[in-house]
Write a structure and sequence with these properties.
eight-stranded mixed β-sheet, two-stranded antiparallel ribbon, 17% helix, Tail terminator
Length: 159
């Protein structure tokens, strides 16, 4: 089956997010850093401060075959020429101010960005229609507690 490489698209997203400063980036789960190293838990703010330092997790997505603009049908014939791609980045920090700043840094890199892929033309990343992450969520299962929020973006890529 030919088509748009999901692996290449997710790699482009990961590469773009390496530009997020003052935060640790994870791919798929906490523990697998963007740089390939692993850790058991995110770093803290520093010696004497057990609060978590800002971090985020990029959850890669397989996407789905896109809808053909002319016929309105999903790609057929065992190949696809477009891919609707939804991603989620979960941002986490010790307090609301740190989380505000982390969300700004992530959104500044992703919102309206167009990944460059060989053999494909990608539309800009935008939140899905109607998506609203709501207020920050507390995670009280860890000590000290932290706040988190999901950020979602979608794009369509065409061959």
């Amino acid at each position: 089956m030919s088509g748009i490489s999901r692996r290449a698209l997710n790699a482009a997203l990961r590469d773009r997010l390496t530009g997020v400063e003052h935060a640790t980036g994870y791919y798929g789960q906490v523990g697998r850093r963007f740089d390939g190293t692993t850790d058991e838990r995110p770093p803290t703010r520093g010696p004497g401060d057990p609060a978590v330092a800002p971090y985020f997790v990029l959850y890669p997505s397989p996407g789905t075959p896109g809808v053909d603009g002319a016929s309105g049908e999903r790609d057929v014939a065992d190949s696809f020429v477009s891919l609707d791609h939804l991603i989620q980045v979960t941002a986490v920090a010790a307090d609301a101010e740190d989380l505000d700043a982390l969300v700004d840094r992530i959104d500044g890199l992703l919102y309206r960005w167009r990944p460059q892929l060989d053999g494909a033309k990608c539309g800009p990343l935008r939140p899905p229609p109607g998506f609203n992450p709501g207020p920050y969520f507390p995670d009280t299962t860890v000590k000290p507690a932290r706040l988190w929020t999901p950020l979602q973006y979608q794009l369509t890529a065409h061959q």
